[in-house]
Structure formats: C-alpha cells, structure tokens
Design brief:
Length: 251
C-alpha cells in the first residue's frame, strides 16, 4: 500500500501523505538531480550567484513539470537549499535554520504548481538578499573590531596574519574586509595609522627625535620611516616639523 501511494505522489497528482517516514526510492528515474547538478546549485549559493541560480532553478522547475517528477525529489531538493543557506547564515552568527525550514514547508500548500514555482523562486531570492545583508553587516562589525585593535596596538609590529589569528578568520578575509571598508590594502591602512600617530607625536612632543618616533612606531629604521613619512604626507619629517613650528609661531 505504501509503495502504491508513494508512486502516485507526483506533481500532477493531488495526493497528500504524512507517513512520518518518507519512502526511500532509487533515484534512477527522470527529474532527479545527480550529485554534480546538486553540487552546482550549492556552489551557486555559496558564491552568492543570485541571477544564475534563478535561471538554473527556472530550468529545473520546467523540467520537473514536463517529467512529472516524484514529490520526494522536490522535497529533497528544497531540503538541500535550506541546509545550504542555513549553514552560510550560521557562519555569520545567525540562527536562521528553523525559520527557513518552517517557510519551506509552506510551499506544499500552494494552490497550483505555478504558484509553487513563483513562491519558491521569490523565497530563494529573498534568501540571497538576506545572506548578502548578513555578510555586509558581519564585515562592518569585524572592521570596527579590527580598527579598534590596530589603533590600540599601533606601537607594536602587526601583520595581517596576527590580526587573522586574533579574530579567528583567514588573512585573505581580513584583507577583503579592510579593502571593502577603506578602499586601501592592509599595509596602506596600517602604515597610514602609524604615520598619523607620528604626526601627532611630532606636534605634541616637538623635542622627540625622529629616531625615537621611528622606533616607538616599530619602523625598521629611521631612513625607512622618513621615506614612508614623505610618501604619506608629502613632506620629510624635518620639513613637517618646521612647518608645524611655523604655524605655532604664527598662532
């Protein structure tokens, strides 16, 4: 009886079952996705390829209608989509799995297959938008934390690997976060902060020698410090100090 009912439970038959134990079927009939096709859908989600995913999903939905695919295949595919989005959301620190699962179960209540296709397409598009929003928010928060940490430790020699270890992310991710927030590389960002601090020290403590400033800010030597200082300010440390002295004298 279970086998007969399962065989009839297809897109174009209006049979609804809730056995609590889905019938296992060999996935050899038409309409079933092979592992390569499944992997392609997962990779499109992971790569945030919203438009390409929508195109491939439309092609799959049309094929399912033509081949009158078994409902268990439809449910299994939706479960794969839920798992993939939920995993990516959880990577961003958001527990969204339950909400995704509850929403996906509502697709079975669609009045027609056309309504089902429309709701599934809209839902996956919303999932992509939410994922992108979480990524932007996560990157913004992480940059704030990195910025605070670097400013607090600007007197210490820091590398991108040090920051990656501190925040438990990859160096390449740190690089992308900083580039996205500042439009410059980590080295430029870190060097700029140290040069700004050098300017502040030279203004507030004019008796400090350039070598002392260089050593304090962990530059390799005074010559390199002077070279970098000029690149970022347009003036040598000596010229900058004289300019600051002139401004104070005029004041």
């Amino acid at each position: 009886m279970s086998s007969i009912l399962s065989e009839q439970q297809r897109l174009k038959q209006g049979i609804v079952l809730d056995t609590g134990n889905p019938v296992s079927m060999a996935r050899s009939e038409t309409g079933c996705l092979d592992p390569v096709q499944e992997s392609a859908f997962v990779q499109m989600i992971q790569a945030r390829q919203k438009e390409r995913f929508a195109l491939k999903l439309s092609e799959l939905l049309n094929r399912w209608a033509e081949e009158n695919v078994h409902m268990t295949e439809v449910e299994r595919f939706i479960g794969l989509i839920v798992d993939t989005f939920a995993h990516l959301y959880e990577e961003q620190g958001s527990g969204m799995r339950l909400g995704l699962e509850l929403r996906s179960r509502q697709f079975a209540q669609a009045q027609s297959y056309a309504d089902f296709c429309r709701e599934l397409t809209e839902w996956t598009g919303q999932c992509f938008d939410m994922l992108q929003s979480h990524v932007r928010k996560s990157k913004a928060i992480l940059f704030e934390q990195i910025d605070d940490y670097v400013k607090l430790n600007k007197y210490s020699p820091l590398s991108i690997n040090d920051i990656a270890m501190k925040f438990h992310v990859s160096p390449s991710y740190v690089s992308r976060v900083i580039k996205n927030a500042t439009q410059i590389t980590f080295v430029q960002y870190y060097t700029q902060l140290r040069i700004q601090e050098a300017c502040r020290l030279m203004e507030s403590q004019p008796d400090m020698k350039f070598k002392e400033v260089s050593d304090l800010l962990s530059f390799s030597d005074q010559h390199y410090f002077s070279k970098v200082f000029k690149e970022y300010t347009g003036l040598s440390p000596t010229d900058y100090k004289q300019q600051m002295s002139g401004i104070k004298t005029q004041s």
